[in-house]
Structures are given as C-alpha cells and as structure tokens.
Specification:
Layout lengths: L3 H7 L6 H15 L3 E12 L5 E6 L4 E6 L1 H4 L11 E11 L4 E11 L1 H18 L17 E6 L4 H13 L3 E6 L7 H14 L8 E6 L13 H8 L5 E5 L7 H5 L2 E2 L3 H8 L3 H32 L5 H18 L3 H14 L5 H40 L3 H46 L2 H5 L4 E3 L17 E6 L2 E6 L28
Parallel strand pairs: 3-5, 6-7, 6-8, 8-9, 9-10
Antiparallel strand pairs: 1-2, 1-4, 2-3, 4-5, 11-12, 12-13
Helix pairs in contact: 5-9, 6-7, 10-14, 11-13
C-alpha cells in the first residue's frame, strides 16, 4: 500500500498560484458578467485619479466596489455614504490581493423613499448655509429689456414662455438650450446659469427663467443636484424657477429669487402687461394736458386782471426824478460865497493875484463837474432803457403762443391715440364674435342635428338617460317641438323609391 499511494497522489493536477487565481477570475467574470445589486453605500472614497472606491452592503455582507473615472462623469448623482442604491455591473477578482469586487457601470437611487431621504438631507444642508434666507432674495426688474431662458429647445415649455411674453410685453429673449432630464442635465443647467452671468459675447439678461414641464421625482431630480442649487444661489442676475407643476418642489425653487408655479406663470411674472401700461400712460397724458390747459388759463386770467402802469409812465417817472435832482443842486456861486466872505476877512495877498488863482481853480472844478453830471445822467438813462425793454409785453405773448401750440399738439395726439384704441377694441370684438359663432351649437343644428332635452331641461346625451313614455323637447335650427320616447328600438329610415307619375303621392304624416 505504501508503494501505491504516491502513484495516486501524482494523478492530481498541480496549479501555480497565478494559474489558480486567474482561473478563478475567468470563472467569476463569466458566471457574473452582468449583475444588478441593491444595497446601501458604506465607505465612499474618490481618489485623485477620479476613480471612486466604495462598499455596497446590507445587514449580512459587504461587497467591495469600484466606479471608473469615465463612468463617474456619466452618473446622474454623486455617490454618498448612507444612500440606498441599485447598481449594475460585473463581478471581477483582483489576484494580487485574493479578493473580488463589483465594477459598477450604472447606479440609481432605490425608489422614491431613498430620493426623498436624499432630498431632505440636501435641503437641510443648504438651509443651514443660509441659501434659503429671505434677505438673500432680490427683487425682479419691473420691465426687463432682455430675458434669459434655460430650458429644452424642443419641448412645449419654451413655446409657452415665448407666446406669453409676446402677448404681455414683447421683449428680447435669449434661450440657452439644455437637457432637463438625464445624466448630463445637471451639468448643462449649471453651465447655462453661470454662462448667462458671465455674458461673454452677448447682452447680459436682466432676469433668468429656469423652466421645465411636469414629471416624476426621478425626472426632476437634476434640479435637486447640489451644483444646480448653488449656481442659482450665486447668480448675480435675479432668477425665476418654474420647474414642474405647482405641487412639484425642487431645491432650485428654494434658492431662486422667485418661484413660479408653472413656466407660463414665470413669463407672467417676468414682464408686465403692455396694454395696461399704455392705458395708464394715456390717462396720465390726458390729466397732464388738462392740468396744463387749466394752469395756462389761470395765468392768462391773472395777467388780464393785473393793473400794470403804462410803459410811457414807467419810463417817464425816473426821468422826472433825475430832472428834479439836477434842479435841486445848488448854484456854484452859492457854494463859493461863504469861502469868499472868509477870504475877505483874512489878510491875504493882493486880491488881484487871489482872484486869478481862484478863477483858475473854479474853472478847473467846473470843467470836471459838468462831464460828471452828464455821465451820471447817461448811466441812469441806460438803466431806465434796459428796464423798459424787460417790461415789454412781447415775451409774454410769445410764451402764450408757444403754450397754445403745445396744447394743440397734445390734443391731436390724444385724439389719434383714442381712434387707434377704438379700432383695436373693434378688431378684438370682431374676433371674439367670430370665435363665438364657431363654437355655437346653432351651426350644428343647421346641419340637420337636433338637441334633445328632458322635462327638467337637461341635455340628454345617452339613450339610457330616458325611458319609454317620457316626454322630451327637440330643438331644431328653426324652432322646438315636443316628443315622447317610444319603447321600441328605432330603425334607420329606408329610402323610398321614387313614385311613378300616375300613382298618387300620399303626404307624409307627423312623425310624433
């Protein structure tokens, strides 16, 4: 027996460590080439290379997992510890450490409950940072010149927004096309908001609208991404969020400056109604015209009632005062008489020499006095002439004429505006009448149909709503007739053959 045992043992194949390890690797990858695993994320580590290393676990086991850098950029969410997810990928082994791992290719949250939990977690985090505070929200511009819209270019949302803006107040609209659902939607929306704020190569909008139609929580999840919420919060341009229906709430709704219930509502908030403001401005213009006309009439009446002196009297009065002042000046003989008496009492040189000297001085004084009086008279005459020119009535008449011309122009413009407004209202009324005729049931009755009503006046839409023997009212295009419901089932009327000329034609009786 001892000789046989070594021969039996030699029949077992021998593997090297590498052969066994790679054989196990091939077996695992072929058997579990595609798996779908549901679990909770444990440790999550993103390396500098861009690869993500994480654990997928439940209450009994843990699977080491990895997400390559290229797959990470395509995920619609960022893996976080504690998230309940569903992963798709394949199993593989790492021979260098004798362990196996799940290579994840797709990842999604496991149900609405996990989505709500993540939503509440992000909401609390952003609220703690103060991004939802009311004092951060800015007022929207009253009348924006340029409106930026971030939405899908192919959906009905952009058409509704453009149509509503065109109806209310036509403005310049810039559309930044983005995806509003899917893996790359959040990245594109973030880039669009930041791009509008940088405004490179185009006019910077006065207000932004981020819009999307309704959908499930999974469809709207891109608007719950942290990057989108932070971009909206950091926007220097006032931002209006219009995502989903009125009952749908996303994180961008909390950080936006204004939350509109629908995309159409966002357009209504962004711009005022142009027709209303035109009417208001026209009313202000009419009131201004009336006030100006009343003010001019009051000034005219006051000017007519004022008792102004005649121009000749205004000019003549200063001249008379000047003549009176000149007349009151003393004569030169009276001025020098006291001096002459003093000279007579003093011991002076010979009178002849003094007289010659005094005569020279007197001539010098008189020579200076006469020009001074003439210059003073000319100066006062010039001042009187300037005052008289300012008191002429021509400037007042010119002002009244100019004001009258302005009033006439305003009246003509007001009349033209009134005529245009009346024509616009007539066109609107005509269109409404045409639309009313198109929707009226009278046209249907004229085509051979009849309206059936029961005894209470309700419209009968089904044969089961009336019973045999019950009275009804039939409304035709030219009048009404009463009828009674027969119990037998009706039959389609047959076309009668055309009677021969020789046979008498029996007139048809009343069907009812």
């Amino acid at each position: 027996m001892k000789d046989v045992m070594p021969d039996l043992q030699s029949n077992t194949p021998e593997y090297t460590v590498s052969e066994l390890a790679f054989s196990l690797k091939r077996t695992v990858e072929e058997t579990f080439g595609h798996v779908r695993v549901r679990g909770e994320l444990g440790r999550v580590t993103v390396a500098k290379s861009g690869h993500c290393y994480l654990d997928v676990k439940d209450d009994k086991a843990v699977i080491n997992s990895i997400i390559w850098k290229g797959v990470m950029s395509r995920l619609s969410m960022r893996p976080e510890e504690g998230m309940e997810v569903i992963c798709e990928g394949k199993l593989s082994t790492y021979p260098g450490r004798s362990n196996y791992q799940l290579i994840i290719e797709k990842m999604e949250l496991a149900g609405a409950g996990a989505l709500m939990a993540l939503f509440e977690k992000r909401k609390k985090m952003l609220a703690a940072e103060g991004l939802f505070a009311a004092e951060r929200k800015r007022e929207l511009p009253f009348m924006p010149k340029t409106i930026g819209v971030v939405t899908s270019p192919t959906g009905s949302v952009i058409r509704d927004i453009l149509h509503r803006i065109e109806d209310r107040f036509p403005s310049h609209v810039l559309v930044w096309p983005v995806l509003v659902q899917g893996d790359k939607a959040a990245e594109q929306i973030t880039s669009a908001i930041n791009g509008f704020n940088r405004a490179e190569g185009f006019a910077r909008p006065d207000v932004l609208i981020v819009a999307r139609g309704g959908g499930s929580m999974e469809d709207l999840w891109c608007f719950n991404e942290e990057s989108v919420a932070r971009a909206a919060a950091n926007s220097q341009i006032p931002l209006i969020s219009a995502v989903g229906h009125e009952t749908d709430w996303t994180l961008i709704d909390f950080v936006a400056d204004y939350r509109a219930p629908t995309p159409t509502g966002a357009a209504e908030v962004a711009v005022p109604v142009r027709e209303d403001w035109l009417e208001t401005i026209a009313d202000y213009g009419l009131r201004m015209t009336r006030g100006l006309r009343r003010n001019v009439n009051e000034k005219k009446t006051a000017l007519s009632a004022a008792r102004l002196p005649r121009l000749e009297g205004v000019i003549a009065a200063p001249q008379q005062r000047l003549d009176l002042a000149v007349a009151r000046l003393p004569r030169p003989e009276r001025v020098f008489e006291p001096l002459r008496q003093k000279l007579a009492m003093l011991r002076l040189p010979p009178l002849k020499s003094l007289a010659v000297d005094f005569s020279r001085r007197l001539e010098f004084i008189l020579a200076r006095l006469a020009p001074a009086l003439t210059a003073s008279q000319n100066r006062h005459a010039s001042r009187l002439s300037n005052a008289a020119q300012r008191l002429r009535p021509e400037p007042i008449q010119q002002n009244l004429t100019r004001q009258s011309q302005t009033l006439g122009q305003l009246s003509n413009r007001s009349a033209q505006a009134f005529v245009r407004k009346v024509k616009q209202e007539e066109q609107r009324l005509k269109k409404a009448a045409q639309l009313l005729d198109a929707y009226s049931y009278q046209g249907v009755l004229e085509r051979g149909y009849a309206l059936v009503q029961n005894e209470d006046g309700d419209v009968v839409r089904s044969k089961d709503k009336v019973k045999a023997g019950e009275g009804v009212m039939l409304t035709f295009a030219d009048g009404k007739r009463k009828a009674v419901i027969d119990g037998a089932a009706g039959k389609m009327p047959k076309t009668k053959p055309k009677p021969k000329k020789s046979a008498p034609v029996t007139p048809q009786g009343d069907l009812f």
